[in-house]
């Protein structure tokens, strides 16, 4: 145990004390540095947390604003579609009214398809008939159109009259025992030309061309 000299032991003791002093000093400095840096790190961490929270709040606000804008855009689009639908309905209604006006003010006539149907049926049983016509120009022109079709089918007209004091609309075929009236009715039906059966009786097949109906 006493294998070293007193001077050596004193040196070791002194160096040990010096080492302890340095170690304690370093430990103290390290502790102070750790405490100081820890507070700084905590401050930075708090700042980052606060920044993240602010960014989250901003992101949520922007998302809410985007949702609101999308809702507004959808509403505008819906209103635009509704307005377009109303415009289309108005356009359809206007076109319908225009068609009705064109029909109302247009003159009746026998078109090519009706002409071909009438001629093909009437020409099978040529007969004689009478025709009565209202005195207005439109009825007269329509009667002339029908008369020409009958004549082209080989039919003959016996009487052409313009009754005075009598007003009627559309086409009428008088009641009669003359079979020619049935041929006329069948031909008009095939050509999809509307007509009525008159209440009066005639000996001869008679077709009446009245004024243009309100809905033709």
Q: Which value, in Å, is the CA radius of gyration?
A: 55 Å
Helix content: 55-70%
The overall pLDDT, averaged over residues, is: 84
- By oligomeric state, this entry counts as single chain
N-to-C CA distance: 141 Å
Describe the structure.
This protein is 64% helix and 12% strand. The protein is α/β, with parallel strands linked by helices. It has 2 domains: 106 residues; 98 residues, Alpha-Beta Plaits. A 5-stranded mixed beta sheet has the order 2-1-5-3-4. Helix 4 links the parallel strand 3 and strand 4. Helix 2 packs antiparallel against helix 4. The chain is rod-shaped and about 170 Å long. The termini are far apart.
How would the blueprint of this fold be written?
Layout: H1 6-105, H2 112-122, E1 128-133, H3 137-152, E2 156-161, E3 171-175, H4 180-190, E4 196-201, E5 206-209
Helix pairs in contact: 2-4
What can be said about this structure in brief?
The protein has about 220 residues and is α/β, with parallel strands linked by helices.
List keywords for this structure.
Alpha-Beta Plaits, 5-stranded mixed sheet, 2 domains, 216 residues, alpha/beta, 4 helices, rod-shaped, single chain
């Amino acid at each position: 145990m006493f294998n070293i000299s007193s001077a050596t032991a004193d040196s070791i003791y002194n160096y040990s004390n010096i080492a302890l002093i340095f170690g304690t000093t370093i430990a103290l400095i390290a502790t102070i540095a750790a405490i100081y840096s820890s507070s700084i790190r905590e401050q930075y961490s708090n700042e980052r947390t606060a920044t993240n929270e602010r960014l989250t709040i901003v992101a949520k606000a922007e998302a809410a604003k985007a949702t609101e804008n999308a809702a507004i855009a959808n509403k505008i689009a819906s209103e635009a579609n509704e307005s377009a639908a109303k415009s289309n309905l108005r356009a359809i209604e206007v076109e319908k009214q225009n068609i009705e006006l064109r029909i109302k003010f247009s003159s009746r006539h026998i078109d090519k398809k009706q002409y071909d149907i009438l001629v093909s049926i009437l020409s099978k049983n040529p007969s004689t008939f009478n025709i009565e016509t209202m005195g207005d120009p439109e009825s007269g022109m329509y009667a002339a159109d029908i008369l020409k079709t009958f004549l082209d089918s080989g039919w003959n007209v016996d009487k052409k009259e313009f009754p005075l004091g009598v007003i009627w609309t559309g086409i009428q075929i008088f009641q009669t025992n003359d079979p020619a009236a049935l041929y006329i009715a069948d031909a008009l039906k095939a050509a999809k030309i509307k007509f009525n059966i008159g209440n009066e009786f005639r000996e001869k097949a008679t077709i009446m061309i009245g004024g243009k109906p309100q809905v033709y």
